[in-house]
Automatic annotation (TrEMBL):
This is TetR transcriptional regulator CgmR-like C-terminal domain-containing protein. SUPFAM superfamilies: Tetracyclin repressor-like, C-terminal domain. It comes from Microbacterium bandirmense. InterPro entries: Tet_transcr_reg_TetR-rel_C_sf, TetR_CgmR_C. Residues 34-117 form the TetR transcriptional regulator CgmR-like C-terminal domain.
Length: 139
């Protein structure tokens, strides 16, 4: 099972790198989240993808490959709480979209609107961070 999870987590990481054209460490938290939103709302996913990811809930040792491969894409530690919350909300939108598609439960006719809304959350997080930097610079 660890091999399956490792393969799935590595595959997600590869899809993200291919879309971004870069490693996550060379991107801003906002660009990493934009990449994740777009990939998660456009990737061809299956019930097997959902099963492999959700099995970590029952076997905590299976979370390590996910953290290692996707953790850098979701890292928000350098940001203030409002920006982190907005990026987390965007990620949750994307997560819900691909999970719904993978399971077929309440699948959307189109994920275009979900993607637009999630990207708007990323944009709001980036604006929030810019405002905070400006306020810090003035003080």
């Amino acid at each position: 099972m660890i091999g399956l999870v490792e393969h799935a987590a590595r595959h997600w990481n590869e899809m993200l790198r291919a879309h971004a054209g870069a490693d996550p460490e060379s991107l801003s938290p906002f660009d990493r989240h934009r990449t994740y939103v777009v990939v998660a709302t456009t990737a061809d996913v299956s019930r097997a993808d959902y099963w492999v990811s959700s099995d970590a809930l029952y076997h905590p040792t299976l979370t390590e490959p996910w953290h290692r491969h996707l953790g850098p894409w979701h890292d928000t530690t350098t940001l203030t709480e409002p920006a982190r919350s907005l990026l987390t909300a965007a990620r949750f939108c994307a997560d819900g979209a691909w999970m719904s598609e993978a399971t077929g439960v309440f699948a959307a006719e189109s994920l275009d609107g979900v993607q637009r809304q999630a990207l708007a959350l990323v944009d709001a997080a980036e604006q929030n961070a810019a405002v905070m930097r400006e306020e810090e610079a003035r003080t």
